[in-house]
Amino acid sequence: MTTTEMPERQEPALDADELSMLVGWLDYHRETLAAKCSGLTDDQLRTASMPPSSLTLMGLVRHMAEVEQHWFGNVFGGEQGAPLYFTDEDPDGDFHPGPDATYEEALATWRGEIAKARAHAEGHALDDLSTGTSRGGQHFNLRWIYTHMIEEYARHNGHADLLREGVDGSTGD
């Protein structure tokens, strides 16, 4: 499968309120990852282009589906969602798409987890606290979760930049 649609990315308004700014930047980074995967075949998306690392673009998408589920569903929403890709035998299974893994499935799962994340956050104030706690027993406010998610995507989008360039030479935003 070749992905051909280039996701639309829009930076938040320069004068947005805090919630709109955080949601806007998170959505921008979500679409950046999608853009880095756009136009590639499943084989290219499974290519670890930066040896000795085994990191792939498809692995990043699968990982971010896990991250969306963890922070918005499990931690903030109090759900006990089963892991999507990792197992006790392969705790990094999200990063290890096998030869039968498809981007179509990974993308649908990731988009589904983003939709669930939005539903968990909808109607909440930034100071609202999570159901789940840190290892130290503290609750996270929604502001912290949004900020952490932006950081998580920004870091992995840097990886995606290098992976994409290694796959087909593409560079840019």
Catalogue the unreliable spans: 1-6
CATH class membership: Mainly Alpha
The rough form would be described as globular
Number of strands: 2
Q: Please describe the biggest sheet, giving its number of strands, its sense, and whether it closes into a barrel.
A: 2 strands, antiparallel
CATH architecture verdict: Up-down Bundle
Pfam families: MST
Protein name: DinB family protein
Organism: Streptomyces noboritoensis
Note down, in words, how this protein is organized.
This is DinB family protein. It comes from Streptomyces noboritoensis. The protein has five helices and two strands, in the order H-H-H-H-E-E-H. With 173 residues, the chain is mainly alpha-helical. It has a single domain (33-168), classed as Up-down Bundle (Four Helix Bundle (Hemerythrin (Met), subunit A)), CATH 1.20.120. The longest helix is centred in the last third of the chain and has 27 residues, at 142-168. The two termini are 23 Å apart. Mean pLDDT is 93; it is low at 1-6.
